[in-house]
Amino acid sequence: MQIRNLNIGMDAVRKKIEDEFAPDKEELYRRTLEAAHIDGSRYFAGIIHEDLDGILSDIREKHKRDRLSAPEELPTAEFAKDLEEILREGPNKEKQINAAAKQFGLKRDDLSDDDWVVLVKVVETIKLKNGGKKRGKK
Prior knowledge:
By secondary structure, the protein is mainly alpha-helical. It has helices at about 1-20, 30-35, 40-60, 75-85, 90-105, 115-130. The chain contains six helices and no strands.
């Protein structure tokens, strides 16, 4: 309601100036008075948007550590870092096993010998199933 009243007041001032001084349509002060006209729907959309931004920021901050929240760092970027690290250590087979373990959040020290053997078998099975073929190549 107040925005409408402000717009009516601005229109009255602009009309009075136009009647008294007959400024050119491109004159700076006339264009300034026209630009001062407030679009009510855009004004309220901006106000609501600012409020929602603050609310969403608070929600995101409070749920940052939730299990279902998206990670801040992209999994592909993390995977690329893991691969670079793994490439710097051990023989080829060991590298593949370490890469698989890291993807599950495991380290060699976290697993018993029996669990490590199972992980090695899983990686070897995956390797056999893929047959060493690369995507799109026969």
